[in-house]
Amino acid sequence: MIDRATSLAHLSSALIERSAAANSAVAALRLSETRHITATLWQPDVIITSEQSLPERNEFELMASGSTVKAKTAGRDPGTNIAVLKLERQLAAGNLASADGQVGAFAIAFGADTGGHATVRLGVVNSIGPEWYSSHGGRIERKVVLDIDIARSEEGGPVFEAAGSFLGMSTFGPRRQVLVIPAVTLERVVPILLKNGRVSRGWLGVALRPVAVPETLGKAAGQSSALMVMSLTEGGPAHDAGIVAGDIILSVDSASTRRMRNITARLGADSIGRKVDLKFIRAGAITSRQVTITERPNP
Q: Which residue from 88, 132, 244, 250 puts its CA 20 to 30 A from 280's CA?
């Protein structure tokens, strides 16, 4: 009969073996002499990392498998929190065989500390949810939540199941919740960023904030909260359609504005050029107007 100590030793050996096998996928981007962030080697000459962690500059140095190589930013997408960089030469890259993951499975998150040294974190897949949209409007195919803690410098590293399947890239969600940008999202977005440098999305050209719907209109509106237009971009879709600051938007294409993500979900690349109905409150009355969605301009 195998005792607990032997079982733990076997588990430890298996994790060490798995760490060694996954080590070729982990890299450290040097931001300064004393600060590094984690990156994942996606292809021999391409790395990916957390967009929200990457400074706004074009050239970096990468440390991977004992080598130093220059890297240039090729594309960024705040919507899915993915940044892509091209390397000046190829590195040895393993095969990132992806999997959907299972709740309760061991998850191993690889990264680098601020000094650029390799780190490993062990936890479990806490939950797996359906497709969701970030606050920046990015579509992410699955919401994978880890029961694990990582440091800021470790965000952007590869996450594997203990069996060796690649789950995706680690990232921080709200309240420092550790999420995984799943492999299927990376496989969709990375080629777009390599080709275009950005992901095209629709745009209304308005700044909004949540407000309560006036009690006198609550029943007619069918909701108790909505989004007020605080400002508009001149020449933007909403401005050109006659929307003004102070209008309270109730719905976009019949999708209630009680949740901002209901709106961002309708502003993907396929929305560009499409007409949508905006239902809103102005001067104590509910009205509607058509708006033609255009492509969000470069920041």
A: 132
| Strand 35-43 relative to strand 46-50, pairing | antiparallel
217-246: pLDDT as tens digits:
988 999 999 999 999 999 999 999 999 999
The tokens of 159 are what? 């996450």
Residue 37 belongs to domain spanning: 4-196
Q: Examine the domain organization and report whether 60 and 139 are in the same domain.
A: yes
Please give the pLDDT value at position 270. Answer: 84
Give the closest residue to 73 by CA, choosing from 102, 51, 90.
Answer: 51
Q: For residue 98, give the CATH number of its domain.
A: 2.40.10.120
DSSP code at position 88: S
CB 153 within 8 A of CB 113: yes
Contacts of 156 (CB under 8 A, 6+ apart): 37, 38, 39, 40, 48, 49, 50, 53, 111, 169, 170, 171
Domain count, the chain: 2
> Both 95 and 172 in a single domain?
yes
Q: What is the pLDDT of residue 204?
A: 93
What are the DSSP calls for 222-246, one per residue?
T-SEEEEEEEE-TTSHHHHTT--TT
Is the pLDDT assigned to residue 298 strictly greater than 50?
yes
Calculate the average pLDDT of the chain. Answer: 88
Tokens of 253: 């294409």
- Looking at the structure, tell me whether residues 144 and 254 fall in a common domain: no
* CATH number for the domain that contains residue 251: 2.30.42.10
